[in-house]
């Protein structure tokens, strides 16, 4: 967490509005005040005019106001006095006393249900924990305050809280250096700056300018960073805000250092160190000394660097030690205990009030019970009726879903069978008709021997395709009739591929295709051999069909996936999408005919053995079918 991450917030303490003349007027009014309540309020106003430049005087006046408000039981004034005392101690870096005072203020404000005061107390408590580098506790307090500010639409408080949230993102960014946190920090801080400028909150504006200056420096915009910090320094000096002056000087020193102006940076840090000693702030002395130690080390003046480092260590030990951590925990526990006691007292008062009302309630009790019983009977009868109706409706809906599902399945089955019969009637009938016609011509003596040789080779192709199709259809039909009878065995995919190669040996030779079976002989897989053979045969047939002359078909295995790859004509994205449902058969590279159903059957067979088929293809780059077997 950056040393500049502390945002001082006391949004009910407008120190810039009171100069020396109003102070004299307040002193006169205090002397002339007849009522203690008025005197207490005036003392608090006078204290507010001093807290930024002279915390000791502000503490003296605040304690006088607190003493009077206690004697007169002026709870709201007591809370305001505790709040101002906590702010003064925070500036003096006395964090334990600051925590104690703010918890006292919060306890009173919660007892009064003072939403605005509660919001302010949580805000200031968050600041203290932020200063102590207890970031989780600080963020928790800020979030609580933010919820109340949003509910109240308190724009001034929202401006301050945006500042704190921006500081939180800045600290996260400083740790992880992620752009999203840097952008968030700048967004919230610039939003906060708009609010503070709008309300003339020059003290808060100073702190936001300092933080934005640091972020712009990190982005490398040194000129804008320096411009913002000079503006912050001008506001702080105008309002005699020592805290703001010190923070501005420390930031300006850092900007000079980033620009390589080490001498200027040392001059500014020495000014900050002197001022921190004058006001007696260990926290600010530690910061300035740390900067000077680092700067002198850059110049090679290691003696001065060591001297200032010793000062830094001594004041750091004073501020952060184990005993203070223990005191902070005790203060939190003390506040929670006191809050519980207050809640118990409220409960006791409520019980006393309940006793006073009990007689009246008894008179209403009997009538209420009778009415309740009647209503219960009516509600129970209606509930039974509604439940019966609900169960009936649910059953109807379930039946409708089942019928709808069965209807869709039947419709799909009918479409598939229509396609199947269409193919059988055409793709099987055509080659048989061709064969019959050719034999009739040969028989009649019209065809000569040379013509017959050519025609027979053509018929051979068609009858081969018809034979493969018929085999696929018969196997598919058998599996449909005997769906549950799957014969899973340990089989050798290499031997299956070798047998399939023999079936297509003629096509392979005619197209001069390089056919590679890369599956190791030792490979064994668990599958239904008949269904697996049909799947691979269709995939290999498809690869041969769409591979050009001199091409390559390669079958391999990776884990539980068998790959059928070719370097053929390939497919575009639309063809790949519709490949298992396409009703149109595409001709092969040598005009090979197909039925358009081979891959549809292949997909069905793969589903039946729990396998999946994936396709990778690109136009002109070949196709790879991946058969992913069940593990």
UniProtKB/TrEMBL annotation:
Matches recorded under Gene3D superfamilies: 1.10.287.130, Histidine kinase-like ATPase, C-terminal domain, Tetratricopeptide repeat domain
Swiss-Prot/TrEMBL TPR repeat ranges: 79-112, 119-152, 206-239
InterPro entries: HATPase_C_sf (IPR036890), HATPase_dom (IPR003594), His_kinase_dom (IPR005467), HisK_dim/P_dom (IPR003661), HisK_dim/P_sf (IPR036097), Sig_transdc_His_kin-like_C (IPR004358), TPR-like_helical_dom_sf (IPR011990), TPR_rpt (IPR019734)
Catalytic activity: ATP + protein L-histidine = ADP + protein N-phospho-L-histidine
EC number: 2.7.13.3
Residue ranges constituting the Histidine kinase domain according to the UniProt record: 423-631
GO MF annotations, alphabetized: kinase activity
PANTHER family cross-referenced by the UniProt entry: HYBRID SIGNAL TRANSDUCTION HISTIDINE KINASE C (PTHR43547:SF2), TWO-COMPONENT HISTIDINE KINASE (PTHR43547)
Name of the molecule in the record: histidine kinase
């Amino acid at each position: 967490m950056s040393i500049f991450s502390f945002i001082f917030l006391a949004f009910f303490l407008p120190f810039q509005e009171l100069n020396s003349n109003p102070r004299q007027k307040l002193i006169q009014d205090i002397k002339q005040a007849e009522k203690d309540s008025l005197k207490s309020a005036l003392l608090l106003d006078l204290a507010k005019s001093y807290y930024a430049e002279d915390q000791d005087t502000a503490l003296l006046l605040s304690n006088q106001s607190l003493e009077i408000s206690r004697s007169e039981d002026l709870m709201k004034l007591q809370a305001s006095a505790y709040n101002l005392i906590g702010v003064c101690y925070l500036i003096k870096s006395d964090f334990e006393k600051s925590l104690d005072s703010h918890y006292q203020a919060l306890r009173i404000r919660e007892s009064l249900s003072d939403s605005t005061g509660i919001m302010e107390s949580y805000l200031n408590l968050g600041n203290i924990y932020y200063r102590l580098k207890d970031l989780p506790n600080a963020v928790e307090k800020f979030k609580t305050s933010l919820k109340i500010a949003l509910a109240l639409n308190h724009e001034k408080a929202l401006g301050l809280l945006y500042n704190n949230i921006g500081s939180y993102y800045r600290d996260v960014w400083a740790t992880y250096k992620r752009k999203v946190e840097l952008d968030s920090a700048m967004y919230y801080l610039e939003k906060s700056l708009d609010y503070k400028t709008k309300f003339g909150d020059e003290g808060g504006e100073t702190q936001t300018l300092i933080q934005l200056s640091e972020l712009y420096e990190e982005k490398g915009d040194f000129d804008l960073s320096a411009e913002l910090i000079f503006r912050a320094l001008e506001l702080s000096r105008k309002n005699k805000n020592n805290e703001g002056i010190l923070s501005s000087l420390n930031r300006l020193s850092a900007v000079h250092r980033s620009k390589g102006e080490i001498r200027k940076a040392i001059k500014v840090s020495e000014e900050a160190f002197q001022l921190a000693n004058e006001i007696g702030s260990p926290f600010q002395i530690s910061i300035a000394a740390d900067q000077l130690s680092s700067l002198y080390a850059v110049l090679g003046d290691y003696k001065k660097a060591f001297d200032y480092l010793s000062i830094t260590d001594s004041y750091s030990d004073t501020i952060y030690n184990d005993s203070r951590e223990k005191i902070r925990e005790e203060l939190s526990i003390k506040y929670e205990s006191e809050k519980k006691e207050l809640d118990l007292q409220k409960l006791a008062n409520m019980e006393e009030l309940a006793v006073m009302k009990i007689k009246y309630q008894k008179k209403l009790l009997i009538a209420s019970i009778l009415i309740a019983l009647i209503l219960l009977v009516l509600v129970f009868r209606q509930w039974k009726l509604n439940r019966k109706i609900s169960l009936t409706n649910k059953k109807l809906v379930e039946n409708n879903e089942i019928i709808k599902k069965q209807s869709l399945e039947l419709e799909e089955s009918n479409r598939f069978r229509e396609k199947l019969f269409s193919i059988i009637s055409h793709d099987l009938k055509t080659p048989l008709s061709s064969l019959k016609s050719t034999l009739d011509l040969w028989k009649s003596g019209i065809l000569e021997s040379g013509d017959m040789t050519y025609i027979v080779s053509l018929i051979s192709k068609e009858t081969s395709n018809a034979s493969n199709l018929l085999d696929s259809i018969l196997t598919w039909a058998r599996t449909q009739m005997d769906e549950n009878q799957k014969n899973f065995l340990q089989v050798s995919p290499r031997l299956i591929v070798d047998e399939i190669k023999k079936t297509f040996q003629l096509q392979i030779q005619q197209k001069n295709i390089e056919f590679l079976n890369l599956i190791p002989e030792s490979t064994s897989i668990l599958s239904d051999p008949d269904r697996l053979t049909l799947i691979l045969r269709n995939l290999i047939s498809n690869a041969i069909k769409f591979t050009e002359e001199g091409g390559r078909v390669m079958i391999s295995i990776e884990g539980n996936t068998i790959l059928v790859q070719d370097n053929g004509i390939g497919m575009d994205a639309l063809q790949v999408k519709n490949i298992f449902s396409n009703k149109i058969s595409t001709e092969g590279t040598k005009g090979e005919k197909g039925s358009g159903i081979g891959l549809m059957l292949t997909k069905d067979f793969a589903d039946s053995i729990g396998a999946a088929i994936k396709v990778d293809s690109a136009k002109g780059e070949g196709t790879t079918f991946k058969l992913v077997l069940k593990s």
